[in-house]
Amino acid sequence: MRKYVVIPDSFKGCLSSGEICGIIAREIRCRDPEARVYTLPVADGGEGTVDAFLGALGGEKIAVPCRDPYGRPLTAHYGLFPDGKTAVIEMAAAAGLPLVGEDRRVADATTYGVGQLIAHAFKRGAERIILGLGGSATNDGGCGAAAALGVEFLDAEGKAFVPVGGTLRRIAHIRTDGLLPALRQAEVIAMCDIDNPLCGESGAAAVFAPQKGADAATVRMLDEGLAHLAAVIEKDLGRSLLTLPGGGAAGGFGAGSVAFLGARLQMGIEAVLDLTDFDRLAADAYLVITGEGRLDSQSLRGKVVVGVARRARALGVPVVALVGSSETDIAAAYDAGVTAVFPINPAPTTLSEALAHARTHLAFTAENVLRFARCLEENR
């Protein structure tokens, strides 16, 4: 009996990871009815992360009243795994860009609601937090979330306030005496798929704030604010974060999660592979099938396809990547362990047509990959 492990990223703007798993699993069962098929939906830490983990591991989605990026009332959700000890939280649920629509005022936006979600998870008994850093509307360095969890930010007059991106330079001191006790004992893993530092020309403000509504002057102000925050963190908490890879993720929440939550930054796919026990599951697999919307140079920096391939290569298991499109210079993917890459579009087409027919094209390509794999096996 053959075992297949299906572990794709989403085709963004088109098919979710869960939908892709369903299409490929159906084709496998049509071609190989006795097969064991394990589907592991993947998300990168942004919107859809909770659903992907719950789809792979089970558990429940929990609703929490909290604040949105501008402090307005919001009901957001997080996931609690069946053991009741691990919670998965996507910061986008309470601080995501879609929540603000076209009213993008990054200097005013807060991650406070994310802290409320984390606090609620601890009240439910969580001992480990998986925090997805993606899709944020914020640039507050995670100060809002920290404030919701008991960290105090004081101005020069000793008055406590909740900093946002535009007021980071007001911070004179940081006190952690009131930090939620459960957080001190917890394991926090922050899923982070970028390596941008906190500040500078490749930092949080310069690279990501413009898409959150910042003009050039605001970018400079936000960058200076994050640099000031880093200086106060080093002075009061003894953590040097300016050069931390991934510190610039989610408006500086990458650095903030390390400083305030004691988090460990980890590539999203590595967190998924560890939590789903991929190495054990795939050890005797006939084939691993992965994929993403586009395989390009960004993918080769540790995204889903390459992350899966590296683990599978160590197990001696072949990996096929089904992708919406691909660059032709992907030798690094093969070097990482990808056996073959198959773009799913069968003919030249426009983007809108490719998106409209993605389900059919994915099923067609999966069927042909499976036919070919079986033919090779039967003719050995």
TrEMBL record:
One of its GO terms (molecular function) is glycerate kinase activity. Keywords: Kinase, Plasmid, Transferase. The keyword 4Fe-4S does not apply. InterPro entries: Glyc_kinase_flavodox-like_fold, Glycerate_kinase, Glycerate_kinase_RE-like, Glycerate_kinase_sf. The keyword Repeat does not apply. GO terms for biological process: organic acid phosphorylation. Belongs to the glycerate kinase type-1 family. This is Glycerate kinase. It comes from Vescimonas fastidiosa. The gene is glxK.
